[in-house]
Amino acid sequence: MNEELDLNKIREKITKLDQQLLALFAERRSLTLNVAKSKAHQVRPVRDQQREQELLIRLIKQGKEYGLDAHYVTSVFQMIIEDSVLNQQAYLQTLANPAIELPTVSVAFLGNKGSYSYLASHRYFSRRAENIIECGCQSFADIMQQVESGHVDYGMLPIENTSSGSINEVYDVLQHTNLSIVGEITQPIEHCLLTAVNTTLSQIKTIYAHGQPLAQCSNFLDKQQNIRIEYCESTAEAMAQAAELQDETVAVIGSEEGGHLYKLAALEKSIANQNENHSRFILVARKPIDVAEQIPAKTALILATGQKPGALVECLLVLKNNGINMCKLESRPIQGRPWEEMFYIDVEANIKNMALQEAINEITKLTNFIKVLGCYPIEHISPTNVPSDKL
Fold it and tell me: Which residue ranges does the record assign to the Chorismate mutase domain (predicted)?
């Protein structure tokens, strides 16, 4: 009995400390927003990685005095720094685009609640809007149509995955739209085998899943025997099927977080081919945005060079000669024109950058067609590294 009382007291102390930590986190976040306000009228980058490294080294040293492991301190404060950077960027973007600052936004995404696109949409707008009006769609074309028609403000589209590569259907719909890419987000993909009832892996006879998760979990699936695969339009549809059937022989591939929305439990976790599995999503809207100069930016281009030797190489050399880093190159066939390709290029530069403007002018002379698909803030925040001798 005394041990139980002592345990309750310890838990009460932990709860109190957690509340204090939350208050301190909130206070720290508000101070970082004040930093953003001070940078609003200065063309200074949001990030200063040398200062971040010095901060981490100092915190590691102080943490050791409290008996805290260096890797623990580093991982905690890398997450805090990422949150700070993203909040500062979001604030600066609202200043650069005052017309789009709304308490409520509507967004179209693939599937319904619980899909990875649903999770990415909520994660992206958690810093930008108080309320989200959800619009689940059954295809990428439906998402584009919902935005183009004005029924929703934004569309969330998965464009590539670290395991299965580029999502070609999205590149194809981008060929035929006037929408602009206005944002991106990288969503961790943590595939699990989910079930609606208590069961075992040996009892599973049918797995419902979208094509992308199936490809990303092929190694796990190859080891299973006598299991039938049922393809679904989205992960959310697969989850809904399992929840409705309530069958011990049925499972679904999806995220544990999404599964909770359907009262599904993880039978097997981390079943993807790669441990580090991420999907990159792009956000599209009817009008382009301005990207604050303090924020690292990407610009997406689409171009067709025609069928002549070295045409694409000439375009890429223009980027190189102007000091512009290309971070993505993808080709897709042009519908109705056999053996001709459309090229999609992402570069790390703001469309307002003079070097990029000059490069686009030069490339225009070398191509049959070129179009800017959008300029948007780089959302992926690479963690600042600490020298190993400081850990």
Answer: 1-92
